[in-house]
Design a protein that fits this description.
It contains eleven helices and no strands. Helix 5 packs antiparallel against helix 6, helix 8 runs antiparallel to helix 9 and helix 9 crosses helix 10. It is elongated, with a radius of gyration of 21 Å. The chain has two domains: 117 residues, no CATH class; 93 residues. With 229 residues, it is mainly alpha-helical.
Amino acid sequence: MASPNKLRIALGQLNLLGAGQKVRELIDEYVVAQGVDPRVPPISILDAEFEKAVDGHASPRTKASEMEHAARYHISKHAHEDPAHYKRLSERLEEILKSFEDNWDRLVEALRAFTEEIREGRPQDETGLDPRTQAPFLGILLEEAGIGNGAHSRAQATALAKVTVLLVEHIRQEIRMVDFWRNQNAQEVLRMSIVRMLDDHDAVPFEKQRLTADRIMELAKARHEYLVR
């Protein structure tokens, strides 16, 4: 039986780009049987040593695999903090992998640029909304209004941005209540007020208002520390 340390080294060199789900599951089963936890996360994209860790691999294929897995992990870990933004990043990653496939040198270049983009965070857009406290909520409104992924006009984005400013300010006031996220009644009051705001401003279709309010509540909880500053 191989030692856990040797298996960790082998896993770091193993290329799973393009491998099917069944293949990944079989590998995980084998690794667990050898006493290694495959759930140990890759080095964080935000780690100061990330580039050094990637360049520590001699093979372009292994470098690409390292960056791919780090990007996937980062996206899945932070998706709840800004669903629309991380959904776009996930789609971009798939496009990059598909575009370059076995051209490992080009893939490494593309993934380097992509991981740098991730490190820089959500950029400020034409609406001028704060990337940390407002833009993530606008992303949800655009999605639920059916005009996400850049399919909206400037006028549509501007109109929903105005709703977002009002919505976020209201949320900030409410969640400052002590132990708000333990108070089910207070949460329900806020949820229903969000539904009314969406309806009053005709922000999303009527049949989507409650679902949108639920998503907004989840996002407010995920970004609580930024909203109460």
